[in-house]
Specification:
4-stranded mixed sheet; single chain; 30% strand; alpha/beta; 10 strands; 6-stranded mixed sheet
Length: 224
């Protein structure tokens, strides 16, 4: 049985913005009588506090994206407890974008979904374009964007409403060196304001940028 709770006031739950304990998840494939169960997560734990940058590292197929989907509520776990702040943004590994909409139209659409006022949206839009340097593509349809620019838009949508918690799955895949540096600059600024970031990757080159790193090994999180 899985218990999922939204933390409306993180301080009431030991100040955490994200808390996961004993998360299990298995996939079932095939048809009876050859149906098989493949366990992916086997009791994973993870805790985050305000103003932290936390990394989650694992080999391809280790279950990193599965755990991320459980943490953000996109996938139900088979067992375990997940508690998180209600103010969070999720950047999936594969951008979920509308091919025939422009970058501006995406930001407008998500701004409405987040309940942003016109002034808030304009300010957030300007910041996103400046921080990730893709304002020149504001009126370009997604179908005409490069993979790197799609990744920028994907990230911009996740952070548009300035959430307390950002959950990023391979966020800098496809970034060039300049954008990679911009990414760490914007994460540092958000960290200084008390926002927290969970970053999933199959490798981490800059360990000193993280407060804590978990390795996902055999379905369990191991603190590095």
């Amino acid at each position: 049985m899985t218990t999922e709770t939204v933390i409306t006031n993180p301080r009431e739950t030991a100040t955490s913005v994200l808390y996961a304990s004993g998360v299990w998840k298995a996939y079932r494939r095939g048809w009876w009588p050859r149906r098989r169960t493949f366990p992916v997560l086997k009791g994973s734990d993870l805790t985050m506090f305000p103003g932290e940058i936390v990394g989650l590292v694992g080999e391809n197929g280790s279950g990193k994206s599965t755990l991320m989907k459980v943490l953000v509520g996109d996938l139900a776990a088979d067992a375990g407890t997940v508690e998180r702040t209600e103010s969070f943004g999720y950047c999936p590994q594969v951008p979920v974008l509308y091919e025939r909409l422009t970058c501006d139209e995406h930001l407008d659409l998500f701004g409405v979904a987040y309940g942003l006022e016109a002034g808030e949206l304009d300010s957030a839009r300007t910041s996103a374009y400046e921080e990730l340097d893709f304002a020149r593509f504001a009126n370009t349809r997604v179908e005409e964007l490069s993979g790197g620019t799609r990744s920028k838009l994907n990230l911009a949508l996740a952070m548009l409403h300035n959430p307390r918690l950002l959950c990023l799955d391979e966020p800098y895949a496809g970034f060039d060196w300049d954008t990679y540096q911009r990414f760490w600059e914007l994460t540092a600024r958000r960290r200084e304001t008390g926002s927290s970031l969970l970053i999933i990757s199959h490798f981490i080159a800059d360990e000193d940028r993280f407060d804590r790193i978990y390795d996902l090994v055999d379905g369990r999180t191991v603190l590095r």
